[in-house]
């Protein structure tokens, strides 16, 4: 036994061994619960979400599947309450809002930065790990400046639901950036007093339609339904696009999310059977690999394909390639030249002793069109920096969704603006700037047969290239 130091009182407490008693014991000690085991069966969790410190109370009642991850629950809180997801957030398990947190769960970008003491990423924690029985509580803080504290209580365990539902609620969510609880109290007081000198200014700032005592259940339900659709069509977790979308609120980039719903990127979607001849760039690339074969094809002394090989390539392209004239010099045939250079850039062919030869990487893609699509998809998006790769992801999404040029430009500009991108001189981006940021990704898609819609030509989105974009965005094949 350890003898207590002189002058200090010592209290011994028996630690209970039952689950319920242990939880009560920890709560009494000022600590919350950490993560527990997940439920074996899926049930519904009826949650009461209450905004702390605000009088009269702002609350919502929602039902979510017990398999909901905390990053998904974040979306539910945002949509049901009426926030616009423009600030950071964090989860805490604690006996009460002021008690030391047992565990903290943060956003992926906060976890990756490593500057804050976070126990786990919210996308790795399931709600039934932290809420198990009626009365269990979780705290959600939104906007570390205004510090909006939400108390999330498991009110009832009910039958399973396929998607989140909003059942009830009272009063409007405070406007974003109103200064937290003190600022909101001041705002309510001023809006309620037409004679106040700041009444007109704050009414204009808050909006004529803002009524602090009004809760629109239909609007909250519609927001949750729209979010469920986005989740259903989203790319698998862990992909580059999923990480990018996590940084772009749907409210600020509706055109981008409209493309997401059309792109069919969910892990439940099947791979599309590739058409035999659909995009001239893909057709010519596949032909070049077969023609090069194991023995290679001759090059001129200047390092270009021989006229005889160029003539064969022109036959593959067919009569619609007559616009290039009759020359069989590779320099006079831009499509042939671009595809040969693309094959080199992709590491499928190389120049060796006066010939163009296939590399070892070309063994599968040379004989299997599906393997060729997978090979290219695995290398996209390209980019010398993060901006080019992320713009490439946006462009790939527009191709996967079969978007026309105007849709693509609008979606990419919205997304880039939501991400806070600016020109080097600090000026805002234009739609043309956002598309140009895709760089080498734009060039590859163009060479493979995609008209990116910058002129007056009709839009073309070959099915094989749309499938290539889908595979690139969904990550490695399952």
Automatic annotation (TrEMBL):
This is Plasmid pRiA4b ORF-3 family protein. Pfam families: PRiA4_ORF3. Residues 45-218 form the Plasmid pRiA4b Orf3-like domain. Transmembrane segments: none annotated. InterPro entries: MM3350-like_sf (IPR024047), Plasmid_pRiA4b_Orf3-like (IPR012912). It comes from Rhodococcus chondri. Signal peptide: none annotated.
